[in-house]
C-alpha cells in the first residue's frame, strides 16, 4: 500500500553543484576541437592561400589572389574531373548492388553467426590497401590466373584485356569500398523490428511487397550513409586508377598527385583539390535533397 | 456502423476452431515438451474471447498460429470451417494487433492504416472513406498526418487497432495490446476496446496475462497453463466456479482446502476438522466418504466473527495481518490446522467484526460458496494427499 515518504529532505534530494560542473561537457569536447583546429582547419586555410598564389618552385610562390588558376585547372582537367565523378557513381552503385544483399543476408539469415560473417567480410581489409589492389593487378593480368585459362580454351579472344580499362578501375574501387557500404546498411537492417515485418505480412503484403514497402524504406538511412562513405573517397581515390588503370582512366586524384609531387605546381594542385571538394559537396547535397534527407534521418532517429 | 463491417459468415459454425493443436519448437513432436500441448477451442462469431494465462503458458504461440506466423506441429485450425494450416499469414482474412504495436515508423498514421487496403487494391475513393471513418472511430482523425513516434502510447495503440480493423477482418487477434500502457490508461482502453468491438461486431481473440483485464472485457475466457486449456467459460463462471486449483489461484485470490471427505449426504460432502470446525461442499458426480477432494472459497465470501457462527462451514484461526485496501480490508488468518487463509471484509459497516492482529476469529461461509475443484492433472496431484490442507493463493 502507499506510504507517505518525505522526498524534500534537504541534502538528500538536492545535490550541491560543484563549481565548473557546467563546463564539464565543453572540457570533454575540447581535445576534439583542438585537434580539428590544428590538423583540419589550419591545413585548409593554408591550402586556400596556396591555391591563390603564383610563381614556381625555384623562385618561390607569392600571394597574388590569382583566382584564374581555378579556371585554368577546370579547363585543362575537366575530362578527368567528370570521369572521377562518373567512376565514383559507378563504383557506388556497384557497391550498393553487391553490398545490400550481403548486408540483408547477414542481418536476417545469418542467425547467430552474424559476427563471424561480418568478420570474414572485413578480413581482406587487414591487408594493406595498396597490396590488396596490387593483387587485383595479378588476378586481372592479360595472361593472369583469370584471363589466361579463359583465353587458352578460346572463350576470350587473345587480345582481350581488363587492366587499364574503366571496368578494372571501377571494379577495384567497388572492391575496396564495399565494407563502407555493407556495414551501415547492415546496421540499418539490423534495427528493423521483426514485428514490423510480421505486421506487413499480416496486412496482406507479399514477401516482395514487404521488402519494397517496409524493409527497404527503413534501411534507406543506412544506404544513404553507405553512399556517402563510398562515393566521396571513391571519387578522390588515386590508388586504383594508378595500379589498375591506364592513360585513358586517369582520375582527378592522380592529376592532383602528379601536379603536386611531380610538377611541383602547388597552387594548381590546391585549386584542383578545392574544385573536387566543391563538386563532391554539390553532388552530395543534391543527392540529399532529392532523397529528402529530413525524412531519411527522421526514420533513422526513431 | 455494424451494417457494413462484416461479410456474412459462410457457415453457421464457430468463427475460429482449433482442433487438438500442438506446437513443438523443438520439432520432435513430443507432446509433453511442447509449448502448446493439444489445444481445442471453438470461438464464436462476434465473440470477445480471451486467452488468459501466465507467461510461457502457450497463449501467444496459440495466437500466432491462428495468425499464421507459426505453423502447428499437428492439429487443425479452422477459420469459418476452412482449414488454415499451410495458408500464409498474408492470405488469411485475420488481422493482428501486436504488443509493441509494430507500426510502420516511416509512414504517417493514415498511411499505416491504409497499408492493408492498398495491398488489397481497394479503390482510392473507398480507401479514403474507410481510413477516415476508422480514424474517427478510434478518435484519431486529427492525427492522420502524424508519424507514429509523435503519438503517445495510447494513441499508437489505437492506430494499431485502426490499422487492423479497417480491413474488416473475419477476426482480430490482440497480443497483450495494453501491456505497455500505465494502469489508468489501460483501464480506459479496456472499456474503449470493448466499445469498439461491440460497434464493429468482429470476433476478437485477446491474449493477456492480466486476469482483471480478461474479466473486464471478455465474453468468454480460456485459462491456459503449461500448454493446455484448463477451463473455458464466461468471466463469472471462471471466477465463481473454477475448474482446477490453477484456475482458482490464477484468477483472483482464492483459498484452497483439501482433504478426505468425512461424510457424504444429499449431494453435499463434509470435511470435519475437529473442535467444531468443518467445511461443507456441494458435490458433483459420485464421491464417497474417505475420498480426497479439493475445494476453493473466495476471500470475499467469508465472514469473520469472534465466536463460532454455527455455519455449515466454519474454521477457527488467529489474525496474522490486517491490510486496509480502501473498499475492503484484507485479513490473513493462520487457521488452527496451520494453514493460512485470506478474507476480504467490505468496509461498508456490514462486517460483523473488525479484529486486530493476534485476535482469535472464526471464518464462516455458505455451503454454495465452497466450490469443488476437478482433480488436478497427474503431476500436481500430490499436494492433495495430505489429511487436510488449507492454503490461499
Q: Can you walk me through this structure?
A:
- Chain A is mostly helical.
- Chain A has 2 domains: 51 residues, no CATH class; 236 residues, Orthogonal Bundle (MetI-like fold), CATH 1.10.3720.10.
- Chain A is built from 12 helices and 2 strands; from the N terminus they run H-E-E-H-H-H-H-H-H-H-H-H-H-H.
- In chain A, helix 1 crosses helix 11 and helix 2 crosses helix 6.
- The relative contact order of chain A is 0.12.
- Chain B has 393 residues and is of the alpha+beta class.
- Chain B has 2 domains: 231 residues, Rossmann fold, CATH 3.40.50.300; 140 residues, Nucleic acid-binding proteins (OB fold (Dihydrolipoamide Acetyltransferase, E2P)), CATH 2.40.50.140.
- Chain B has 8 helices and 22 strands.
- Chain B has a 6-stranded mixed β-sheet, sandwiched between helices.
- Chain B starts with 15 loop residues before the first strand and ends with a strand.
- The chains are: A mainly alpha (302), B alpha+beta (393).
Relevant CATH superfamily of the largest domain in chain A: MetI-like
Greatest interface and its residue counts? A-B, 22 and 29 residues
**Gyration radius of chain B, in Å:** 25 Å
Walk across the major sheet of chain B and give the strand order. Answer: 6-7-8-3-9-10
Strand order of the largest sheet of chain A: 1-2
Number of beta-strand segments of chain B? 22
Average pLDDT figure of chain B: 87
Uncertain stretches of 5 or more adjacent residues of chain B: 1-11, 378-387
Distance between the termini of chain B: 44 Å
**Order of helix and strand elements from N to C terminus of chain B:** EEEHEEEHHHEHEHEEHHEEEEEEEEEEEE
Indicate the radius of gyration of chain A in whole angstroms. Answer: 26 Å
Per the CATH scheme, the topology name of the largest domain in chain B is Rossmann fold
Based on DSSP secondary structure assignment, what is the total number of beta strands of chain A?
2
Unreliable stretches of chain A (pLDDT < 50, length at least 5) are 1-7
